[in-house]
Amino acid sequence: xxxxxxxxxxxxxxxxxxxxxxxxxxxxxxxxxxxxxxxxxxxxxxxxxxxxxxxxxxxxxxxxxxxxxxxxxxxxxxxxxxxxxxxxxxxxxxxxxxxxxxxxxxxxxxxxxxxxxxxxxxxxxxxxxxxxxxxxxxxxxxxxxxxxxxxxxxxxxxxxxxxxxxxxxxxxxxxxxxxxxxxxxxxxxxxxxxxxxxxxxxxxxxxxxxxxxxxxxxxxxxxxxxxxxxxxxxxxxxxxxxxxxxxxxxxxxxxxxxxxxxxxxxxxxxxxxxxxxxxxxxxxxxxxxxxxxxxxxxxxxx
Length: 302
What we know:
The protein has 302 residues and is α+β, with helices and mostly antiparallel strands. It contains 6 helices and 15 strands. It has helices at 123-128, 132-138, 144-155, 163-166, 171-184, 190-209; strands at residues 3-6, 11-14, 23-29, 40-45, 65-66, 70-74, 80-84, 90-95, 102-106, 112-116, 229-233, 241-246, 252-256, 261-266, 271-276. It is flat and about 55 Å long.
């Protein structure tokens, strides 16, 4: 079993699970009828169980709440993938580097889905399909030493080169972001705090304007058809979920260290239980890092 946590989208993903019971089959080809292998097929319920937000926008502590998951599988060498046939209408999102994303609706009980993916010709979109590491590898910030410090001091907490980090930002936007990250604990050298804002703004603009500079990084493993990824939504955009572990009881625990909550996920039942960390009388919001959090939109930590 493999585990991965998308911190900003706040989905908890557990992989390598088998599909049993009734299943829908998704078959994918290109315009010529050639089957497409290693297509990422994500199934989402059209009307999922609504989240519990009764505790100031978060789930009521101590009370289990069943969440509806997203499921992702990959097509095999025959261009087919099997996904559980769940009750209710669903959406399918198809993704494969080199092809245009496609979203499809499927009616309740529809067990055979046929799809055709069009080749992608837009150079920028082709580059955007490459992983963050490809963008970071092509990024020029002035020197090897500057880039090494940038990777160490900014990359240990935030993936660099991702869609969020490479979007258009002015030097002033980057300067404000770096100042905030230094308050949060980054140890970026003072000279780089001054030079990186302009270098990052210009460096990412150069790559967006010249997407052919972004190369490599795409390798689709032959074992993908054996993988199923199950995702549970936890927290919200103001959460900072860290430190995930799988306990001996096979439950998954994730700490939200900005909202002082602990999430317990049962992969067998899709039940999520939240435990709120008690605040002692006199505790101040933010605790030891209150100054660092002064411009954070919302937090509930002491």
